[in-house]
Specification:
Number of helices: 16
Largest sheet: 7 strands, mixed
CATH class of the largest domain: Alpha Beta
CATH superfamily of the largest domain: Type I PLP-dependent aspartate aminotransferase-like (Major domain)
Structural class: alpha/beta
Number of domains: 3
Bound molecules: pyridoxal-5'-phosphate, 2-acetamido-2-deoxy-beta-D-glucopyranose
CATH architecture of the largest domain: 3-Layer(aba) Sandwich
Shape: globular
Order of helices and strands: HHHHEHHEHHEHEHEHEEEHHEEHHEEH
Length: 489
């Protein structure tokens, strides 16, 4: 690829990025979603030709790719648990891409090996763990990080499973809350326990695991001759943003000798704020933690830290000592080769972009960005409460997500308690979403919540970057109200 091509794509991206507060938006979300799958295929021509494209055509192809993609950095993109990217993290990821390093051994990645170690220690310190016990690895996403938690728990309790498998151990079971992320179940499937090995514990009205129910479920499983070994708590559930009570859960884990994993994929970033880290009180007792910096902290995808306070357990559990990579007679201390802790061979460098963003912004700035998320949540809750056309799903939200219904006039007139059982309510969100995508100036996701028997509701998600403003929130509510007033259910 020629330099000219690289430059034109690069500058187009930068332009869009800097421009985002103004006009990125219109052509941005709109073009991506109103064009159907078939027409995008025609517009882009995904065919590979014998001779390759001319340079001008290549540039055009890249432009179209940018044009038809959703610009997740737009201030009105609230559709996912990730959104804008911190510009420093973007710069960091360009740097690591350009060096096309792999994180397998110290010899190919000396700088990044040290950066990964330092960043993991830095993150672990927020959990009040002792520096010498902190270990971990950057993993390709929170789902895989949760799987790391399960596999370490198994290894701690049944080390021979590494050679013999789990066939002769007995019926191993794991516990998560009914509002926990589905990746735990996928993990149980992949690791050979099966989905039925995952026992779902009831949550309270806010979506937090009920420790008493956990204790009961563990006792019941033991009575049925099952072997409990793992509890997956959640700090910031995916839909309601709820934080499980970690201290009482840790006591139950101690009592039954269970591995305590905290899925803080979403909520871990609250640890950066002295005002809000109280939400994760008890995280110091966790055996392992998942923390997605690509969500609230706005580092570019992917940036998922898996942390454990069992030094060397990752190596013991996962190492295979492949002779062509991890020779024991190296010219340096081969403990610095982090690759054998991993389930991967080649591994992207995910730590550097986080480190660069932290280094550039400094702790004070990050703390302010996190606090802003919580302030915006409060503002959104207050504004939703004030508008008669909206109903909050919970009276308060613990973290970055705010969930609510829009009620068309017909449902608004009903007795307050009844609107949620009206079968027409479930149709409102999909109708508004489809109009929203036609207009192309806002993306907000919706979902039902089966555990609580709640029909489709909207979920706005706030992240640190770009910082959300009160105007952005007013825009979201005005826009949904405006679209909603025109739908007929
Ligand atoms: C997003 C999320 C995950 C999955 O993380 P990925 O990086 O998307 O794999 C796991 N747990 C929770 C609570 C999440 O919000
Ligand atoms: C990565 O690939 C580029 C282009 O092929 C090459 O110039 C560069 O040396 C490589 N870098 C590393 C760290 O392997």
């Amino acid at each position: 690829m020629s330099l000219r091509l690289l430059h034109s794509i690069f500058f187009e991206l930068i332009d869009k990025f800097l421009e985002k507060q103004k006009s990125l938006f219109k052509p941005a979300i709109k073009s991506a979603v109103t064009v159907t799958i078939v027409s995008i295929q025609e517009l882009l021509s995904l065919r590979i030709t014998k001779e390759g494209l001319r340079e001008d055509d290549l540039v055009e192809l890249c432009r179209k790719t940018i044009h038809y993609s959703v610009k997740t950095s737009h201030p009105h993109f609230h559709n996912q648990l990730y959104a804008g990217i911190d510009e420093y993290s973007l710069a960091g990821s360009w740097l690591t891409e350009a060096l096309n390093s792999s994180q397998a051994t110290y010899e190919i990645s000396p700088v990044f090996t040290l950066v990964e170690r330092a960043v993991l220690k830095y993150l672990g310190a927020f959990c009040s763990w002792k520096e010498e016990e902190i270990d971990g690895i950057f993993s390709p996403g929170g789902s895989i990080a949760n799987m790391y938690g399960i596999v370490l728990a198994r290894h701690k309790m049944f080390p021979h499973a590494k050679q013999k498998g789990i066939y002769n151990i007995g019926e191993l079971v794991l516990f998560i809350s009914e509002d926990a992320h589905y990746s735990f179940i996928k993990g149980a499937i992949w690791l050979g326990f099966g989905s039925e090995a995952v026992i779902k514990v009831k949550t309270d009205e806010k979506g937090r695991m009920d420790p008493y129910e956990l204790d009961k479920a563990v006792i019941k499983a033991k009575q049925e001759n099952k072997l409990p070994f793992f509890v997956g708590c959640t700090a910031g559930t995916t839909v309601l943003g709820a934080f499980d009570p970690l201290i009482p859960i840790s006591n139950i884990c101690k009592k039954h000798n269970l591995w305590m994993h905290v899925d803080a994929a979403l909520g871990g970033t609250a640890l950066f704020s002295p005002r809000h880290r109280v939400l994760l009180q008890g995280i110091e007792f966790a055996d392992s933690i998942t923390w997605n910096l690509h969500k609230l902290a706005a580092v570019s995808l992917q940036c998922s830290a898996f942390l454990t306070r069992h030094q060397n357990l990752l190596t013991e559990c996962n190492s295979f000592n492949a002779e062509y990579l991890f020779q024991s007679d190296k010219y340096y201390d081969s403990n610095y080769d982090s690759g054998d802790k991993s389930i991967q061979c080649g591994r992207k460098v995910d730590s550097f972009k986080l480190w660069l963003a932290l280094a550039a912004r400094g702790e004070r700035k990050i703390e302010l960005l996190v606090d802003n998320v919580f302030e915006m949540v409060e503002y959104a809750v207050q504004k939703i409460r004030e508008r008669p056309s909206f109903r909050l799903v919970l009276s308060q939200f613990e973290s970055s997500n705010v969930c609510f219904w829009y009620l068309p006039p017909l449902l608004r007139r009903q007795n307050c308690a009844n609107f949620a059982s009206d079968p027409r309510l479930a149709k409102v969100c999909p109708m508004i979403k489809s109009k929203m995508m036609e207009r192309g100036n806002l993306m907000v996701n919706y979902q039902p919540l089966k555990s609580k028997n709640l029909p489709n509701f909207f979920r706005i998600v706030f992240t640190c970057y770009p910082p959300t403003t009160e105007n952005d929130i007013d825009f979201v509510l005005d826009e949904i109200e405006n679209i909603g007033s025109g739908i007929i259910i």
